[in-house]
Known about the structure:
By secondary structure, the chain is of the alpha+beta class. 39% of the residues lie in helices and 20% in strands. The N and C termini lie far apart (63 Å).
Amino acid sequence: xxxxxxxxxxxxxxxxxxxxxxxxxxxxxxxxxxxxxxxxxxxxxxxxxxxxxxxxxxxxxxxxxxxxxxxxxxxxxxxxxxxxxxxxxxxxxxxxxxxxxxxxxxxxxxxxxxxxxxxxxxxxxxxxxxxxxxxxxxxxxxxxxxxxxxxxxxxxxxxxxxxxxxxxxxxxxxxxxxxxxxxxxxxxxxxxxxxxxxxxxx
Length: 202
């Protein structure tokens, strides 16, 4: 009678199996883990952070990694918030950070402009109606692995908690968060990578 209880206390069952690890802060997840998941992905990378700014500073050679993935046939998508949107302005007031939300988004746009246009690389702004949902929850998907960050009140992304999920079957947490990101993407507005940058955007 004791053995099954001891086993189930240590072995994940059901949908719990999809939770690989959790971190009290996004910044506590090693950059090598992010880089490994991105490098291992072969089909689909969807980066659904509101600014996605930290990728360019946290992962060494990230621009080259994105280029290699896209050129190898992996679909690489960036879903970001509109730097001129009302939600971005309000978030800046909440965070009161020197490196503002709109500035972080424009840094991402500048990097994307340097990369694109590139076959396999896509970028969109989330729709205005979805911006509040987007800024409150980031989903970063690498094939069947995903990082999910629910943003806390006034906390900047790196200070919010992070969950690492790995898909184990239909209808689990991975699929639910993944569907959320896909819904935001489907309703988003394409960014023209010819004009994206610090001073121009689609």
